[in-house]
Amino acid sequence: MESFEVVVVGAGPAGAAAAIHAVEAGYEVLLLEAGPLGRDKTCGDGLTPRAVHQLERLGLAGEVTAHYVNHGLKLHGYGGDVTAPWPDSDYGRVGSAMPRTRFDELLARTAAARGATLWDNATASAPELADGRLSSLTVTVAGVEKQIRAQWVIVADGVRSTFGKQLGREWHRGEVYGIAARSYCDSPHDDEPWMHSHVELRGEDDEILPGYGWIFPLGDGTVNLGCGALSTDARPAKLNTKKLLHHYAAQQREEWGLGEPERVTSALLPMGGAVSNVAGANWMIIGDAAGGVNPLNGEGIDYGLEMAEHAVELIRAGYRDVTHAWPRLLRARYGEAFLLARTAARLLTYPQFLPAVGPLALRGPVGAKLMPAAARLMANLITDEDRDLMARLWRTAGRGVTAARGNTPLWS
Ligand SMILES: Cc1cc2nc3c(=O)[nH]c(=O)nc-3n(C[C@H](O)[C@H](O)[C@H](O)COP(=O)(O)OP(=O)(O)OC[C@H]3O[C@@H](n4cnc5c(N)ncnc54)[C@H](O)[C@@H]3O)c2cc1C
Known about the structure:
The chain is α/β, with parallel strands linked by helices.
């Protein structure tokens, strides 16, 4: 039986980053990916400054930003347009975007180049527990099963988290989650340095549809065009996201010179840490599998990259058992912001909410002042060091919501 100090299940951004951090910390690492290298992942491909900052820590920011850089968000709808540049923060002011086929392969290949053993087309299953510790797992490569022994296992197996489920991971869909579709369209505006979001979508009879659309230029002759909506089990978004995507593309075709949407796919987004059983004695769940997606803007790459670094920090810190330490760290680092965002996002699942506040938020002098601040909150670009009024209000509101919603599932 082969043996590794750290086995990472899943080579998306979270898993590949965990492998890089672990190998840099001197561990013998096996990175497993069920798909082929360069596999696709349904995503908007957008990278906020928070993600670029984390790429810097991996020594990879330059490879990504050399292709394309953006300066912030442009929000459209309800008769208004607001430009919200990335705020001046510790994360920097550089955003980017890169198709996930390329982005994820870059990270996985970097892990291998720095010394991790990388197996693609290799599916992990059947975790064996002995004395509460995950002692071994089965890896199936080309139909052949291998038994692997592990001292530590980092589970980064994405939204479905089939391996995580075998360890008892549970996703609470009574809390807000996202449904979304994306596509790639040719566009002569592929180098436009802003991420665009349309918060007012209208149907064929000019009726307001639940949901929002995005166009994220990629600097390679194409844009990532997609749409999505927030949902809960109690108020499921009644939306065919792929159909809506084609409708949205038709509406934007002239302005963006769009080609036909290609490679249209849809997926769910687990959000705001609404996941429980995320750790055992020697295993931790990170990334989408741990609900590491911001409910207010759907970004999860940055949180996956950050969680990867935190998980390796816990291993390095010499813990023998992280069953409680891992969820405690997640709650301390993200709990207040995610709970507040989840609570605010819940409002967006009421179909009447956006049409009521949209015109005020996006039009005129109020919108021009309000929305850049809102964009900073939406992208969670406030750090613990920020002392300005907005940062203080955000933190106070976070503490209030945390106190009021004490029993809500949050990496419990
Ligand atoms: C439509 C849409 C748009 C989005 N837009 C953005 C955006 O613009 N910006 C942003 O930051 N986030 C965005 N997100 C969220 C983002 O895609 C995720 O948060 C991110 O991919 C999470 O990374 P991850 O590594 O946790 O999981 P994943 O990227 O899903 O990677 C998990 C990997 O694990 C592998 N795997 C699964 N099971 C096993 C197994 N048993 N053995 C081995 N390997 C396994 C899978 O093949 C996969 O490669 C979007 C999501 C959606 C659905």
